[in-house]
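Case study 2.
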Amino acid sequence: MATYVLQHSHEASECRAVFAAWRGFDSPLRGRSTVASCRQGGHELWWTVEAGGEESALAQLPPYVATRTHATEVSEVAVP
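Prediction:
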C-alpha cells in the first residue's frame, strides 16, 4: 500500500454539490474529518489515504468529487 494525498478543488458555486455527493456513497473517508479551505474562500479539500494505486485512491471519493481531484503519492521524510 502506498500513501496518497488527494487534493480536490471546486468553484464556490459547487460547494453544495461536492458535499451532497457523499450522501449514499460508501467510502472509508465518509464521516471523517479532513482539512478544507472553503470557509476561507479557497474551495479546496485534502485527504491522506492508503491505496494500492492512484485509481484506488481516487475510488475512495464520489465520482463527482474524484473528477476534480489530483492524487499524489507521498512518503514521510525527516526534515533536518
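The first strand starts at residue 2 and ends at 9.
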